[in-house]
Amino acid sequence: MPLVTTKDMFEKSMKEHFAIGAFNVNNMEIIQAIVDAAAEENSPVILQASSSAIKYARINYLRKMVEAAIEEHDIPVALHLDHGPDFETCKMCIDNGFSSVMIDGSKYDFEENVELTKKVVEYAHSRGVVVEAELGKLAGIEDDVNVSEQDSMYTDPAQAQEFVERTNCDSLAIAIGTSHGAYKFKGEAKLRFDILQKVKEKLPNTPIVLHGASTVIPELVEMCNQYGGNIPGAKGVPDEMLHEASLKGVSKINVDTDLRLAMTGAIRKVFTEDPSAFDPRKYLTPARDLVKATVQHKIRDVFGSSNRA
Ligand code: G3H
Ligand code: 13P
Ligand code: ZN
Description:
single chain, globular, eight-stranded parallel β-barrel, binds 1,3-dihydroxyacetonephosphate, binds glyceraldehyde-3-phosphate, alpha/beta, 8 strands, 50% helix, 13 helices, binds zinc ion, TIM Barrel
């Protein structure tokens, strides 16, 4: 099946109340792991590359590896730019065959975000590409913001409605308490489902995106630490909350950190157990297998997208 946009998969997700996993890709092993997992689950999937991933892997390699991956399978796959920082990066991805881009104007004030997003939407839509935008700010515990600062960072539902109407973006990332990386909460994990509900009331037909949505799977953190890593106190969004989000209107759930942990844990294990190993296939094969199992678990047990291809 050729590369698709997220339009049809999002429509289905909103009608049937499930979420689609958007997994960050940086190299061949990660792409293969994600697409193989999604194919086994007969699930739609989004492969997303950040601008630093594009710098690392190079855009031609990424696109061609994704093309190779979709030739092998018959499931809907979208190729998406994650956190596009400016118009030029979005344009580069659109011109290079991505089917979806994110313009992340969340660092700007509302009016600047609207203007930038509109510019990207105009360029993208005229070329059949869809656009994710972001409103609200994701703050991690490392950002050390106080409660009232945190409150002002959550997405305002009325502003979200105005933003979507004025920009005509295809999907919207909102801030309801998640953050990027392995340290999301100091105490109990907490998401503002009340804000999600209000946004969905205002925007029933707009697919909603959750960034910073890794579970920071305890077994994977333990595995990294057991084999020489040092990632103390890491904490993410529990599976139950992500499942609830998938039922309550989140259409796209972004995952990068959990794949990094899986890859790193598996590689550390090989090196610890066999210090004489130096064939990359010897450590990249179990790494790819563990990334695949991690993706498959999320698709099947958390996001509910199995058999929705
Ligand atoms: O949200 C950011 C993703 O985890 C990508 O991270 O910019 O290090 O590739 P990166
Ligand atoms: P995590 O760091 O929680 O995996 O979030 C990834 C993300 O939001 C990519 O855009
Ligand atoms: Zn993100």
